[in-house]
TrEMBL record:
Name of protein: Uncharacterized protein
Annotated Basic residues bias: 20-30
Lineage: Bacteria, Pseudomonadati, Pseudomonadota, Alphaproteobacteria, Hyphomicrobiales
Annotated segments matching region Disordered: 1-38, 64-94
Length: 94
């Protein structure tokens, strides 16, 4: 006689319904929803200028990546890498 499969949220190790330190207050969400200071905007501009990835910026500023990208768009800051071509233009060797 075969056992019936347990529901996903009842299985050990399932992330569904899990509580604990992983969901409590991760570093990138500590300042979520709070107003931006002028110093934070300056740091965002500086990090974006140095081609810092959005995920790293979110950890440094302790805000979600979506908040970083939306604030950058509102401020007119480009998060795209400066040193990359928009198209795949490799030099062909013939």
């Amino acid at each position: 006689m075969a056992k019936a499969a347990k529901a996903a949220w009842k299985r050990p190790g399932s992330p569904i319904g899990k509580t604990g330190p992983r969901k409590a207050n991760p570093k990138y969400k500590q300042r979520s929803g709070q107003p931006w200071s002028k110093d934070e905007i300056k740091e965002l501009k500086s990090l974006a200028k140095h081609n810092t990835p959005t995920g790293v910026i979110s950890l440094k500023l302790k805000r979600p990546p979506a908040a970083i990208s939306s604030k950058a768009q509102r401020e007119g800051i480009s998060l795209r890498p400066v040193n990359r071509s928009p198209y795949s233009r490799r030099a062909t060797t013939r």
